[in-house]
TrEMBL record:
Keyword tags: Signal
Domain Carbohydrate-binding: 47-129
Protein name as annotated: Carbohydrate-binding domain-containing protein
One record GO biological process: carbohydrate catabolic process
Transmembrane regions listed in the UniProt entry: none
Family annotation (CDD domains): CBM9_like_3
Signal peptide boundaries: 1-20
Length: 353
């Protein structure tokens, strides 16, 4: 073992592939899903809320949703999972939400949907975390906010009748690519084979009780938040922790998801960003001194697979840079407005390893 392990670790160290660095250098990789293109032979998706189109049967479910605070939290009371497909016009999403009591109080458009149970979708086509369509709504009786989207809901039992239990409701969505990429300069509509986008789903579920045949929220009990890829905090607006989808034109189930080599640098950029935001909240300015930031010690002491640095401009602006030790991996950057981008390195400096 020893004789094998040493050279392997040595090799890994020099090719910087992974694993010989402290684990806190990198965030756990989010969940991922390969989205297959609708086959020309299959019937189209009819957005009627029922996930009974032949194409849905051919693709896998995502993993079950977990608590937004992470996998170590209580397992959700009800199962939630989703499927995705695409064609040249739409990203299709089919979600299954197990439920015993379907109720809805919000009936007006633009009502505050998270006061009812709901299903939300977040999409960041170019992964820069900077702008994303926030598709809200989806209780059995409220509409969704993106005007061009097609959506429908099917409920397996009666709505708002506490004397008859339901089993589930399903949500079927068709999100037009042309609108999804509207604020994403580098994303293409429709996507290309192998393109990766960031996405996350959230289900808000209140505890209700039956009072004389109608539903009331159980007082003083907070809502549950269940997500596909856990956020580690009750806040869905952290796109850097969302899941990855990879678009594929290959036959269903014949493609593997490919993890981006940028992930370690991406993680470090987010750690630096969050630490700078904490620092300025307390001190009133940003710092370029990493020892003052709440980041893992391995980042401060240069034990990670990248070199982190922060440049502060006039105390109130910063740009953090993370240079992977492997010269073939692009350099990551993040600004104080959370914009993330990567730059390829000068080919002349490339070091073959
Ligand atoms: C693809 O995999 C899923 C999950 O294992 C399975 O349900 C589905 O039938 C498979 N589809 C095809 C076309 O093999
Ligand atoms: C939705 O709201 C409308 C208007 O309040 C109501 O007439 C209808 O019955 C509701 N539908 C469901 C499924 O609750
Ligand atoms: C609920 O369903 C039961 C059985 O169908 C029916 O008798 C009752 O009137 C319904 N209640 C409401 C509030 O619609
Ligand atoms: C729905 O609204 C009614 C009337 O305001 C209220 O009595 C009931 O508690 C609400 N139900 C839920 C589950 O919030
Ligand atoms: C969804 O967002 C949460 C929080 O940002 C994150 O932890 C989780 O990994 C995301 N889901 C996926 C599939 O990334
Ligand atoms: C960075 O911050 C630490 C802790 O506050 C301090 O001891 C150190 O002198 C600072 N380094 C520089 C170069 O300012």
């Amino acid at each position: 073992m020893w004789l094998i392990w040493v050279p392997v670790c040595f090799l890994l160290f020099f090719s910087i592939l992974a694993n010989c660095f402290p684990t806190d250098c990198v965030h756990p990789f989010p969940r991922s899903y390969v989205v297959y293109h609708l086959n020309e032979l299959q019937e189209a998706i009819h957005v009627d809320g029922k996930l009974n189109d032949e194409a849905w049967n051919s693709v896998a479910w995502t993993e079950d949703f977990i608590d937004i605070q992470g996998p170590d939290w209580k397992k959700p009371r009800f199962r939630t999972h989703a499927k995705m497909l695409w064609d040249d016009a739409y990203l299709y999403i089919g979600a299954f939400l197990q439920e015993t009591d379907v109720w809805a109080n919000q009936t007006k458009h633009d009502s505050v949907v998270y006061q009812d149970n709901d299903f939300e979708v977040f999409v960041d086509p170019d992964g820069d975390t900077h702008w994303y369509p926030y598709i809200n709504g989806g209780t059995p009786n409220s509409s969704w906010e993106m005007p061009t989207l097609k959506s429908a809901i099917f409920v397996s039992g009666p709505v708002n009748n506490a004397s008859l239990p339901d089993k589930f409701w399903t949500v079927e969505l068709a999100l037009p690519f042309s609108d999804l990429v509207d604020h994403s300069p580098t994303a293409s509509a429709p996507p290309n084979n192998k393109d990766q986008w960031r996405i996350n789903f959230s289900r808000v579920e209140w505890h209700v009780r039956n009072v004389n045949g109608h539903y009331e929220k159980v007082p003083n009990v907070p809502e549950d938040n269940w997500v596909w890829s856990s956020q580690g905090a009750i806040n869905m607006h952290l796109p850097e922790r969302w899941g990855f989808i990879q678009f594929s034109t290959d036959a269903v189930n014949t493609t593997q998801f490919v993890r981006t080599r940028n992930w370690p640098a991406y993680s470090a950029l987010v750690m630096l960003y969050e630490a700078e935001k904490k620092f300025i909240a307390v001190n009133g300015y940003y710092t370029a001194n990493l020892t003052q930031l709440e980041i893992p010690a391995s980042l401060k002491t240069g034990q990670c697979q990248y070199e982190p640095a922060v440049q502060v401009v006039k105390l109130y602006n910063f740009e953090a840079t993370v240079k992977p030790l492997n010269q073939r991996i692009p350099v990551g950057h993040i600004r104080d407005d959370r914009f993330i981008w990567f730059t390829e390195r000068d080919k002349h400096n490339e070091i073959e390893v």
